[in-house]
Amino acid sequence: MDSIPSQTLSDGIAVVTIDLRAHDPASALAGLRAGIRGAVEGITASGTATTGVVLRIAASHEVSSIDPAAILANQPADQVLSQASELTALLARLEDSPIRSVAIIEGEAVGAPFEAALACNHRIMVRSPGTRAGLPALSLGLLPAAGGIGRLLRHMPLREAMELLARAETVDCARALELGLVDEVVDTGEAAEVAALAWLTSTAQRIEAGRKSAEPGADQAAVQAATSFAMAALPGRRRAAITLAAIASAWVTQDRAAAAATELRRSVELATHDDTRAWLSTHWRPDHPARREPSQSPGHGTHEDDHHCPDRAIARIRAAGLLEAMALVGDGVPAARVERLAASAGMQRGPLLVLDEISLTPIDAAHHQSEGHDHGHGHDHGETHEHEHEHEHGHGHGHHHHHAKTHEHDHGDHGHANGHEHGHHDHHHPHGHDHEHCHGHRHEHDASAWPAVPPAAVYVLEKMAHGFGRTGRAAGGGFYDHPAGSAPSLWPGLEQFERPAVGLTDDDCVDRILFAQVIEALSALADGLVEDPAELDRSARAAGFPGAGGVTGFVEARGRASFTTRCAELASRFGERFTMSPDALKRLPGNT
Q1: In DSSP terms, which residues pair with 124 in a beta bridge?
Q2: Other C-beta atoms within 10 Å of 45: how many?
């Protein structure tokens, strides 16, 4: 294949070759646009005799439909939108053309090249160790912007499509065929072209193409469930989760033109946000674009670094401390005392304030998903929700929820879905670890990025998220009030959780927060999310764990015997989440 898009004509069938393998990401995106433009202009020209189009697309790395370099260069949002809209419009013209099209996928044609392939009526993959398909833009903090999300929903059930997107997953030939992302797999490019020509000239292709033009469909409950999954699958990346859920909802509830406009607009808004620029600055380099080895597809092969995922470790360590702070509130400790003690331990920001920034929504989604309850926390703009939660709060933390009183919540960008039929259930959470690693490995629970929510924290979570409708700053308030132009202040309503004779010393409170983080960190080391104690300490510091010495310094300062004894004491008093594996300290350096 040539490195520049080329076009030939065979029996009225245009064959357009787009080889991007020698291009850097920015020029590859331009090359893709040029190739698609040539194909579209060729088939729409007046007097054309074209009866079909074959797009041969080859790439060797991810090409995003939004240029990461432009985002890092602080290109204005309107310019990013203008550039991204060109590819969107070209693919829409290709898809809407009465001339049938076939995409041949060679190499690592992921991102925008696969968006282009999805716009075709038929897809053929060339089998090779490096051939991949997928839309992994979220590995860069971005989302597909050229209609790829909507087209993916036409070929996969909504939840499976959300999984593929949220996990930034790419798949090999066998998996792509199994998922319905491609229609054929062949051994060579020549065989692919023969198969493409055969499909275009057969009568069956007209029936198949007509069937595949159907719009994506799902009821609103499925959208709400997918929203909950997005929140759970992207802990600490709430903005990306909300954007993904909003786009998926648009494709299910709006007409195609409106949904495509929503996908483009929301993807650009996400891309040009400061949080995304910060993510890109640490996850992308122009001379080393994101790459995935063939063995990194979930459930399809192994890799020596298959478990390594410092980002996952950071998320879990941070979450453990935040959940324990919430559990302290549930145990009756005044919120102001929790924040003060966290600061005295060296934490730069109060954990309750951090929870407000993250939002309780993904935690709530993760908790209910892990518990197996169907709490579709989808979000519709401006919808009101009727639910009252009457909590019978003892230390067993069984919660009976009666839905009677109306609470009207304006959730802005992410309205809270109704339909909470909780029944009567006892929340018990052993300290379990379902591990969903960086490469997207699918395990029993989708919410594995969050540790189990402690029982006392469940009580607070249910009351705050459902009883009071206070999920965080973006929802108008959470543990704190956030008045415009003023510093946040603790919400007076938190006094309802306080109990005068709580019986917890300052040391108990501080140790619960810190030990929860340390135990989670040691689990991450044992599970291979971090490679060694040095990376463990870097991850712990990135998660907000106080102290320059990190986890290893904390254990050394306590002494291993004293640390182990304190873990056992905390476990006996406050729950199994403080139980530490006998082998947890073996990989730490030295003896104390």
Answers
A1: 104, 184
A2: 10
